[in-house]
Amino acid sequence: MQRLGRPLAGSSLAVQGFGKVGAQSARLLFDAGARMVAVSDRKGAIRHDRGMDVHALLEHHAQARTVVGFRGAEPMDPRELLTLPVDLLVPAATENQITEDNAAKVRARVVVEGANGPTTPEADPILLDNGVLVVPDILANAGGVTVSYFEWVQNRAGYPWPERDVNERLVEYMTHAFAAVFATTDRYRTNPRIGAYILALDRVTQAMHARGFYA
């Protein structure tokens, strides 16, 4: 949102999937001031244009095992969630959700891929042409494996970090990764997914050279 020159606070949000990734994404974005207007899970989808209290929704989900039936929200067709006119769309369910068949209907300003491969290769250029900023899965959902790396470092050192330190380091790493990916994207005038791949391959190549893999 900073890249677009818009505040996160007050931005509208739709989340597809309410598992570990979707639910925590919703909570963190809600705590940062976003207004969640729609959410779905395997049993259905709900919407509330004025916004839902995500903490209350988490309590409802813990008891009902679904977002369906949340007080004050209306049921909706899960397929329509992907095409709502929101600031932020987080597809955090399964792969191949945004395709060439529905990409032109996506009206979100930003798509943050919580799931692995929710956007097909055919849909990427459509989103790009329509001005939709896609934060690709290789970047957007890398926080989990980054913290796994932190755990490995702690195990190697035999020294546990406080949760505060883990969160601060995670923010630092992810913010740096975002800036690097989009700098590469701008440099090569491509979409963020290809920018992320270019950056990743370049880093692997540099590491191999440094270790003497090539003469």
Structure notes:
- The protein is of the alpha/beta class and 215 residues long.
- It folds into 2 domains: 12-140, Rossmann fold (3-Layer(aba) Sandwich), CATH 3.40.50.720; 143-210.
- It has 8 helices and 7 strands, in the order E-H-E-E-H-E-H-E-E-H-E-H-H-H-H.
- It has helices at residues 20-31, 54-64, 78-81, 124-129, 137-140, 143-157, 163-188, 192-210; strands spanning 12-16, 35-41, 44-47, 74-76, 88-91, 110-112, 133-135.
- It has a 7-stranded mixed sheet with strand order 4-3-2-1-5-6-7.
- The longest helix is centred in the C-terminal third of the chain and has 26 residues, at 163-188.
- The radius of gyration is 19 Å and the shape is globular.
Which descriptors apply to this entry?
single chain; 215 residues; alpha/beta; Rossmann fold; 2 domains; seven-stranded mixed sheet; 45% helix; 13% strand; globular
Quick recap of the structure?
The protein is an alpha/beta fold and 215 residues long. 45% of the residues lie in helices and 13% in strands.
Mean pLDDT: 96
Unreliable spans are none
What is the name of the CATH architecture of the largest domain? 3-Layer(aba) Sandwich
Under CATH, the homologous superfamily of the largest domain reads: NAD(P)-binding Rossmann-like Domain
Q: What shape does the CA trace take?
A: globular
Give the ordered list of helices and strands. Answer: EHEEHEHEEHEHHHH
CATH class of the largest domain: Alpha Beta
| Number of β-strand runs | 7
**Which value, in Å, is the CA radius of gyration?**
19 Å
Helix content: 40-55%
Beta-sheet strand percentage? 5-15%
Q: Please indicate the count of domains.
A: 2
Major sheet summary line: 7 strands, mixed
Number of contiguous helices: 8
